[in-house]
Amino acid sequence: MRSLARVLGTLNFTDVDCAPVFLEHSGFVARLAGISLERYLTEADIMVAVKLEAVKKFRTDIMSLGLDSCVEAEALGSKVVFSNSAYPYISSSLITDWHQLDRLTVPDPWSSGRMPLILQAAKVIVEKDAGEHFIVGQVLGPVTIASQIYGIEKLIYLIVDDPEGFMELLKFTSQVTERYCEALGETGIHAIMLHDPSASPDVLSKGVFTSFIAPQLKAMFERIKKRQETYLWLQIIGNTTSVLHHMADFNLEMVTIDTAVKLPDAFHSLQNKVVVGNMNPMLFRNATFNQLASTLRQILEQRREFGYVMGTGCETPLDASEEKITYFLELIESIKCHG
Q1: What is the pairing mode between strands 231-235 and 254-256?
Q2: Max alpha carbon distance in the chain (Å)?
Q3: Which domain of life is it from (predicted)?
């Protein structure tokens, strides 16, 4: 079974030859090839070559297209500091008061910052991959964009001191997310992943998620679905066990769970969603081969028959071991696709 058919079958909760595998390789593969992170994150042809080589080298079913957590903020006007040894970062907050939102304009993804780089790369990859793999584009969620342009510490104070201001900020950043989603949908990819790590209950608390974030995300997903036909995928890091029931109510198809979330809990709460996870990507840097084998056994004992993708909670670390990743994937092959 081809990778694309395997993932589409999983999305339909039908029988497939084996659970799809998703290891979120990005800058790790660029460094493996001796390419600087800055070139990988700023040149479309380099990104295309790295992504196609990664899926060929490691034989995973899903190809994820994303750069770093600064793309949306940069498109809004934030200054980004690049490094050849680490992912870039925002040097200072773009705004210091939410009332300054009137200075900002929702960026056009086809002409703002590095957004066009992703869109160009997505089009080329869709053409070159020729329907072999399930291709997903990454967009930052509204809470994380807000934390990038406002600063996470100030954002926490804003929630406490001026919750209405916090909601106004989220309304604006949701527009940024939605506009980028719309553009990505025009490239021919199969799905869009909204990566929103700052929305985690580990960062802003369960109460904040329930009262402020969940209603905003739910409304945003509804608007996206009305405008375009695409699979939607939500990825929030940390222990999201306490808010999985909110995610079950969102109009989307896939949810990533991080290592702190137990697979049985996720399957129970997300019966109507494809669950992706809950492997710790740091295993590919720190684990022994025996520990990798033990991790796979635990997953096989807990997985459900339909609607599950074996994957990591977030991206492969830059200093991961190629040997350990290869060993893990070969172990999967050796047991005939988890059978």
Answers
A1: parallel
A2: 58
A3: Bacteria
Query: pTM for this structure?
Result: 0.95
Give how far Cα 249 sits from Cα of 101, 102, 142, 245, 266, Å.
30, 32, 18, 7, 14
Collect all residues with Cβ–Cβ distance below 8 Å to 159 and sequence separation of at least 6: 166, 204, 208, 212
For residue 232, the SS3 value is: strand
- Of 284, 62, 77, 74, which is closest to residue 189 (Cα–Cα)? 62
**Alpha-carbon span 185 to 229, nearest angstrom:** 8
Q: What gap in Å lies between CA 107 and CA 176, rounded to an integer? A: 7
pLDDT at 247: 98
Stretch among 2-11, 86-95, 315-324, 327-336 having the lowest mean pLDDT? 327-336
Which among 263, 259, 265 is positioned nearest to 242, based on CA atoms? 265
| Average pLDDT over all residues of the chain | 94
DSSP string, 21-76: EE---SHHHHHHTT--HHHHHH-HHHHHHHHHHHHHHH--SEEEE---TTHHHHHH
Helix ranges (DSSP H) in the chain: 3-11, 27-32, 37-42, 44-58, 71-76, 115-129, 142-150, 152-161, 163-185, 201-204, 206-208, 214-227, 244-248, 263-269, 283-286, 289-302, 322-334
Nearest to 309 by CA among 266, 262, 276, 263: 276
For the chain, domains (ranges, CATH) are: 3-28+62-334 (3.20.20.210)
Place of tokens 């999985």: 244
pLDDT tens, residue by residue, 203-221 = 999 999 999 999 999 999 9
Is the per-residue pLDDT at 338 higher than 50?
Answer: no
Distance between CA atoms of residues 162 and 164, nearest Å = 5
pLDDT-derived band of residue 326, with 50, 70 and 90 as boundaries? very high
Sort strands 89-90 and 80-81 into parallel, antiparallel or unpaired. Answer: antiparallel
